[in-house]
Amino acid sequence: MKKPNIIFLIQDQMQQQVMQPSSGIQMPNLHSLMADGVQFSRAYTCNAICSPARASLLTGTLPHTHGMVDCTHTVPAYRAEFDASLDTLTAALHEEGYHVSYYGKWHIERSHRLERFGIDDYQTEKHMPAFPVTMKQRITLTTPGYSDKLVSGVFSEDTTHTEEYYIYSRAIEQIDARRKQNRPFCTFISTYAPHDPYCVPEEIYQMYEGRELPLPRSFDDAMTDKPDIYRRMREVLQCLTPEQYREVMRCYYSYCTLVDIQLGRLLDHLKEADLYDDTMIVFLADHGDLMGAHGLMMKTVPPFEEVYRIPLVMKLPGREMAGHKADFYINIYEIAPTVLELAGCRPLNGSHVGESMVPWLKGQRTDSHYAFAEFFGQRYAFTQRIYWQDGLKYVFNAFDWDEFYDLNIDPDELVNRSDDQDYAESKKMLCTKMWEHIKRTGDETMLDAEYYPLRIAPVGPGKKQQDAMYSIYNKQF
Fold first, then answer.
1. pLDDT tens digits along 204-245
2. What are the DSSP calls for 307-335, one per residue?
């Protein structure tokens, strides 16, 4: 079997709504790719921030297994350290004969020595040149006692002066270099876009001139039935007017369009080089962005769909399954096992690796599967676990009251049904399934949290994993 070329296109902080033509976001090249590929409507990240999610994509494991539970630049190593002994997607591809290259944002571990993971050629954020721009307008967040923070802006330089143009150009050069060799290639193109601050070329910003940008339906959600910290975070942003929110949205949409323009360059080049049909293309994001949902922006503790549900498209070789819509759940840590099987490569080694979703793709499994996420709270350590199944969503908040949403009738998550007796059994069922998944993946820190005041979940995890007679004292009861 001839192995296909593979290209991973990793966006940073891109909402799943970019896949919806009704969103108003101009992404014609993505929609063209969707028509040629498999569209996943229920793809979920396992963590709301960059490094944990990206490390899960690379290793096929959850953050508590790979160790990068926070972003590489935000906490010291003792609070988030990547386990470099784990098998990786890139190492598996390299061993299978692929030339592996990586361009753009890495943000997975701190060494930036990608050869350690089977990557032959690379240029990460640590090795790239600077891209100075001339700002023409900007929106800044001002908070007493904190430094001012740029939220969005418009600059006068054109698209060719952006980091996104640069890394796509490097990847295209690498593809041309590999085309002449009798060896499959795998190229990762990882953009910073559309991550905040949302700063874009004026030429793209003007593409949204005169377009109506409605605020999300949940924008005015009072959130009185949700954890207090969500309202505290929204208060920080209340210095921005609704019109400023719309301006930020315009810049965010423009940033997504900037990515789409680069995608178009790549697709055109592959077709001109007669490589398109021989190449598997995987388009995804590490996580999403709240972008006005519930009056919030960016991402952090609030576990709303705008952050956790991600775009995912797989264009298979020969355009197999073109236009197919996959409605089952798929987790970001299941993408690597799935791609490896589709490419005819060896699976990832090690325990607690996600499963390949190929049986669901081929119709051999017809259940909807489930999604799971774990959040370690960034610098402030707000611990969360989230479990999705059949349109129901349970959020275990170790720092406050839980959440439970019926996305089948409330896709905007306006009503927290955690205390609704009509959902009491469903809540317990998803909590039980959460514990089962935690047990399967070896998260013993959570499983063994049996100390008296920590028994706050609606249902406990069951039998304790450690020896029941274990004690820090020389006593047995």
1. 999 999 998 899 999 999 999 999 999 999 999 999 999 999
2. HHB--EEEE-GGGTTTT-EEEEEEEGGGH
Other C-beta atoms within 10 Å of 64: how many?
18
User: Which residues, listed in sequence order, are joined to residue 43 by a DSSP beta bridge?
Assistant: 330
Report the predicted TM-score, pTM, of the whole model to 2 decimal places. Answer: 0.96
- For domain 5-371, the CATH class is alpha beta
The 3-class SS string of 342-357 reads: HCCCCCCCCCCCCCCC
Encoding tokens for residue 336?
């690597």
CA distance 56 to 51: 8
Assigned token pair, 15:
């909402």
Q: Is residue 38 a contact partner of residue 361, using CB atoms and an 8 Å limit?
A: yes
CB distance 100 to 94 below 8 Å: yes
For residue 337, cis peptide bond before it (omega within 30 degrees of 0): no
What's the CA angle centered on 16, arms 7 and 332, to 5 degrees? 55
Domain boundaries, the chain: 5-371, 390-454
Q: Nearest to residue 365, comparing CAs of 418, 329, 322, 323? A: 329
For residue 187, the cross-strand partners are: 7, 101
Kindly state the tokens that stand for 362.
Answer: 């081929």
Q: What are the backbone dihedrals phi and psi of residue 143, each rounded to the nearest 5 degrees, phi first?
A: -130, 130
Q: What is the mean predicted confidence (pLDDT) over 128-135?
A: 96
**Distant-in-sequence, close-in-space partners of 341: CB < 8 Å, separation ≥ 6:** 347, 356, 358
How far apart are the C-alpha atoms of 367 and 374, rounded to whole Å?
A: 23
Q: What gap in Å lies between CA 462 and CA 469, rounded to an integer? A: 16
What's the pLDDT score for residue 473? Answer: 61
Strand duo 392-397 + 403-406: pairing: antiparallel
**What are the percentages of helix, strand and coil residues in the chain, rounded to 5?**
35, 20, 45
Question: The tokens of 388 are what?
Answer: 């999705």
